[in-house]
Amino acid sequence: MADELIGRFPASGSVEFIGDYANPLATLIITELLGIPAEDRPIFLEAFGQGTPAEIGASVADIANNPLVAMGMRIAGYIAERRAEPREDLLTQLALSRFPDGSEPTLEEAARVACFLFGAGQDTTVKLLGNSLRLLAERQDLQAKVRAEPTRVPDFVEEMLRYEGSIRASHRLCQRSTEVCGYPIQAGTTVWIANLAVNRDPRRFADPNTFDMDRPKLREHLAFGRGTHTCAGAPLARAETRLSLELLLERFATITVDEGRHGPEGARVFHYENSYVLRGLSELHLRLEEAR
């Protein structure tokens, strides 16, 4: 899928990376993994091709138009079909799953989990890819280093997750009054966990505002959370980003920011999606020169 999408890049070498590559790649792969019929995948591509559907300050009507609602109804239909006629796919596993007490989830409960997996496997990848390509396009020295040493791509991805990961913040509801680092938190309080800020904590990471692939303990960031609340899409986002970087760096001799779209070096203008949770570009225009 990655090869096919790259093959569709315009001959001019001018690419809007989020819309031309990151979004369709993530959507196509998660729909295949779930088992969504191939003939229906263009519907999902269209529905999720515009990035975050409901931004900060969105109206009730905007939130109601979230494509996950309409696609969730489709997914519920797929699960109902799998309960009647099981197949070899993840939707069937969800359709036939049971709670620990042996009871069967309702169709809505199973569909909610499937929709969550869809979102977790799509959004995190798109944001991580966009953030990664922006950095590589602006740091030609770093781009040259990773291209010359492709075995360092996994290290690049881990440091990228710490330096500017996909998740801006996580949210929790305090169920019991407690104290964290001297701060009292009352039961019923909504807690904002600022993942990006944690990953720049100088008490944990030396020189935290510097991108350093040689940093010790690269995987100790909290870009995807930790423990039972780790993002379900994390392994997939890592794999898709690693593969994409390897293909792009091999295929193209230079990857640069399109200055006609984002401005010259030192005066760049980038637009990020207006989200409480996600940290990702709404668009990224690049210039690509194929390797000989």
UniProtKB/TrEMBL annotation:
A GO molecular function held by the record: oxidoreductase activity, acting on paired donors, with incorporation or reduction of molecular oxygen
A Pfam family reported for this protein in Swiss-Prot or TrEMBL: p450
Gene3D superfamilies: Cytochrome P450
UniProt entry tagged with the keyword Iron: yes
Keywords noted in UniProt: Heme, Iron, Metal-binding, Monooxygenase, Oxidoreductase
Entry keyword annotation includes Transmembrane helix: no
Cross-referenced PANTHER family: CYTOCHROME P450 YJIB-RELATED (PTHR46696:SF1), P450, PUTATIVE (EUROFUNG)-RELATED (PTHR46696)
Assigned protein family: Belongs to the cytochrome P450 family.
Protein name stated in the entry: Cytochrome P450
